[in-house]
Amino acid sequence: MPRRFAALLPAVLLVTVSIAADRASAQHLTYGLNAQPELHVVGAPMLDKLTELGGGVLRLPFGWDTIEPACKGCFDWTATDAWRDQARRTHRSIFASLGYTPRWANGGRGFSYPRIPHFREC
């Protein structure tokens, strides 16, 4: 019986290793970085660090209040274009979300109006 087991051991190991490799390659994980563009200077260092760490995606909240700040139809793409240019340079993807209402669209209130019920600023 031990000889039979010894003869099967290489085959069992090969199957086990190939199953583990298939599981690892099937995940297709992508890692990235979450950034707040109004908190960070748009530039090479952040995207260079993301590239160095092997991250492929930069998540950015693009503020409607920054893109269309003064009036309806008055667009300013300066900040978004700068992030896009850095992402292209480093071959990273951007996962963008749109938020933050401009004052002209919400009655002159702040970008986070209306406030979330029961929310308290500390």
How large a portion of the residues is in β-strands, by DSSP E? 5-15%
Instruction: Summarize the main sheet.
Output: 3 strands, parallel
Percent of residues in helices comes to 40-55%
Low-pLDDT stretches are 11-17
Radius of gyration: 25 Å
Helix-strand pattern = HEHEHHE
Instruction: Summarize model confidence as the mean pLDDT.
Output: 74
What's the total count of β strands? 3
Tally of contiguous helical segments: 4
Cα-to-Cα separation, first versus last residue: 71 Å
Structure description:
Helix 2 links the parallel strand 1 (32-34) and strand 2. The protein has 4 helices and 3 strands; from the N terminus they run H-E-H-E-H-H-E. The radius of gyration is 25 Å and the shape is elongated. The chain has a domain at 29-105. Residues 11-17 have low confidence and may be disordered. The longest helix is centred in the first third of the chain and has 25 residues, at 2-26. With 122 residues, it is α/β, with parallel strands linked by helices. The protein has helices spanning 2-26, 44-52, 64-67, 78-90, and strands at residues 32-34, 57-63, 93-99. It has a 3-stranded parallel sheet with strand order 1-2-3.
